[in-house]
Write a structure and sequence with these properties.
The protein is 63% helix and 0% strand. The protein is an all-alpha fold and 86 residues long.
């Protein structure tokens, strides 16, 4: 991972907070999962309980990215943020 990619990723995380309208839930889950994969790598947490209606979709979205490198997740996150800001 390059320092430039890390900086751009961190800037995108700040920039996404400046969106004028809230993205739909699917987009929010994509942002969450890509951010977690880019910053922490493959999911290693235990799946939340069945009635955790917030944690379960987040867990599933992140789990779907298993095996994607941190660099690739960062690139996808940056591209999605740029798309949302356009």
């Amino acid at each position: 991972m390059t320092d430039d990619l890390r900086r751009e990723f961190e800037q995108a995380a700040k920039d996404v907070q400046q969106l004028h309208t809230r993205p739909d839930n699917d987009t929010l889950l994509k942002l969450y999962a890509l951010y977690k994969q880019g910053s922490e790598g493959d999911l290693s947490r235990v799946q939340p309980g069945f009635f955790d209606f917030v944690g379960t979709p987040k867990h599933e979205a992140w789990a779907q990215l298993s095996g994607i490198t941190a660099d690739e997740a960062m690139r996808r996150y940056i591209a999605l943020v740029h798309q949302l800001l356009a």
